[in-house]
């Protein structure tokens, strides 16, 4: 990690800050990995525990729980201090990890994954919020960029690690590995992040907390299950969507009256907050929505193995690392950030347009360059918008504002995955005819099964995947253009230095 120079800080303070940042970076990596590491182990888990009809809930339970609690952790951290809130979050995460490893039934595993998500959802928010506590705005860009790269790396190495643990040990170890690493990280955090000793009596916004949780749960469930487990017009999906809308209305009503609102509506009057929320939403939709389907292209159209397909996504990580580092240095040197999301959305749009051109015979060089372009866009967007928001909100609202930004990004990705999944499945069904069972929640034909198909069938399947996937990237490019337009509305509020922090 690049050392952060603290001109007004004592050497001991600098050492503590580095220890804190390394510790929370490790915790954030663990939380991010647990969103992806399970994917390659699912077939083995099902073979061991059964419950194939509940398979998707192993992933959905974690995502649902972590999405719902993210804004709650942000507010609790602001109200009661982030040190104790981190301990609660880590405790729930490690307890959930232990129970996941001990699971002897699919139901037990799903419940344990939900508990794990209740902890993991706080680690993202608290990690980014703590950066706002210990570093001045001008110094935050570099670290936020590193954390963005951590998240990107986890999406690539998660499936690889999951497959390796299953082959070398047992699937239980994809959860047990969290225990020593998590304990090491929390010990380092506790040693570096000292309590302030300040305590104030606070009033929790229970109505806002409950209504926001229901709204987020409804949105997450609709986007996760709609068109997959249930048809879009089914009673279950309509009921969940209706409950989400009603809960959202109640939430707005409650926030206008709460003394300590969990998400103050006044934040939306701040230009930097609402503009970066829109940019984060569309960028999350473009990135997470589109890249979800790239393994299908690589494994089915190109015929690569799961391990190789994971390795072929690495150029995106390099793109994020490069531009997030450059963005951090730019913000540290100039105290400005407005130009960066403009550049980032241009990269993102170009990368999506390049991906829309991929074919069965597309070269590895072109594919890698496309992914690197998308990654370059992400590196100029995600860490920058977080730093910009933390620079303009009051210190007591840093956690709340940070959590809200992550929430909008997550919702954007969830909605896009649902939209793109519906488009992909419909086009595959139209192309494949009697082989429609190969489409839907994803293609279930493995590379090994693909190799056994007749050449004509294999070629037709590959062409169908390419034809079905290209509109997804075109829509991703449209999202990038929307973000590009909104980035011009972003106000430039100079980032303060350590000297000016006060």
Key terms:
single chain, 502 residues, mainly alpha, Growth Hormone, Chain: A, 3 domains, 19 helices, 0% strand, globular, disordered N terminus
Structure description:
- The chain is an all-alpha fold and 502 residues long.
- The protein has 3 domains: 11-195, Growth Hormone, Chain: A, CATH 1.20.1250.20; 205-259; 264-497, MFS general substrate transporter like domains (Growth Hormone, Chain: A, Up-down Bundle), CATH 1.20.1250.
- It has 19 helices and no strands.
- It has helices at residues 11-33, 42-49, 57-80, 82-102, 106-134, 137-168, 173-176, 178-192, 206-225, 235-255, 271-291, 294-301, 306-311, 314-334, 339-355, 364-392, 398-432, 447-451, 455-487.
- α1 (11-33) packs across α6 and α16 (364-392) packs antiparallel against α17 (398-432).
- It is globular and about 65 Å long.
């Amino acid at each position: 990690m690049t050392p952060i120079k603290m001109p007004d800080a004592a050497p001991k303070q600098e050492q503590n800050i580095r220890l804190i940042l390394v510790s929370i970076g490790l915790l954030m990596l663990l939380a991010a990995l647990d969103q992806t590491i399970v994917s390659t182990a699912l077939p083995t888990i099902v073979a061991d525990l059964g419950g194939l009809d509940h398979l998707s809930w192993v992933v959905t339970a974690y995502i649902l729980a972590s999405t719902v609690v993210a804004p709650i952790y942000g507010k609790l951290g602001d109200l009661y201090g982030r040190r104790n809130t981190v301990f609660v979050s880590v405790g729930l995460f490690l307890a959930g990890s232990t129970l996941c490893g001990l699971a002897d039934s699919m139901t037990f595993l799903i419940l344990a994954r939900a508990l794990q998500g209740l902890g993991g959802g706080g680690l993202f928010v608290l990690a980014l919020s703590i950066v706002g506590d210990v570093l001045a705005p001008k110094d935050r860009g570099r670290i936020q960029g590193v954390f963005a790269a951590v998240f990107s790396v986890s999406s690539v190495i998660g499936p690889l690690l999951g497959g390796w643990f299953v082959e070398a040990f047992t699937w239980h170890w994809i959860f047990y590995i969290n225990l020593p690493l998590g304990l090491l990280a929390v010990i380092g955090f506790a040693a570096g992040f000292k309590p302030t000793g300040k305590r104030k009596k606070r009033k929790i916004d229970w109505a806002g907390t409950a209504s926001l949780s229901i709204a987020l749960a409804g949105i997450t469930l609709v986007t996760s299950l709609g068109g997959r487990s249930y048809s879009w017009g089914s009673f279950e999906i309509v009921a969940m969507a209706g409950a989400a809308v009603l809960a959202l209305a109640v939430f707005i009503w409650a926030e206008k009256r709460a003394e300590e609102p969990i998400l103050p509506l006044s934040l939306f009057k701040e230009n930097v907050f609402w503009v970066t929320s829109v940019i984060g939403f569309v960028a999350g939709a473009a990135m997470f929505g589109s890249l979800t389907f790239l393994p299908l292209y690589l494994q089915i159209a190109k015929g690569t193995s799961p391990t190789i397909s994971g390795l072929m996504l690495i150029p995106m990580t390099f793109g994020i690392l490069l531009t997030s580092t450059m963005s951090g240095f730019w913000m540290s040197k100039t105290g400005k950030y407005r130009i960066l999301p403009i550049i980032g959305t241009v990269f993102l749009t170009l990368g999506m347009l390049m991906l829309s051109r991929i074919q069965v015979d597309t070269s590895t060089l072109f594919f890698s360059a496309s992914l690197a372009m998308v990654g370059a866009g992400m590196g100029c967007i995600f860490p920058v918008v977080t730093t910009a928001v933390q620079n303009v909100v009051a210190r007591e609202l840093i956690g709340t504002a940070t959590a809200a930004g992550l929430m909008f990004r997550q919702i954007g990705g969830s909605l896009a995955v649902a939209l793109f999944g519906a488009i992909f499945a419909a086009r595959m069904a139209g192309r494949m005819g009697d082989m429609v069972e190969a489409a839907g929640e994803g293609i279930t034909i493995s590379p090994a099964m693909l190799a056994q198909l007749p050449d004509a069938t294999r070629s037709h399947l590959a062409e169908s995947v390419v034809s079905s996937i290209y509109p997804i990237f075109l829509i991703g490019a449209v999202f990038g253009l929307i973000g590009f337009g909104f980035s011009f509305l972003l106000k430039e509020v100079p980032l303060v230095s350590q000297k000016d922090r006060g």
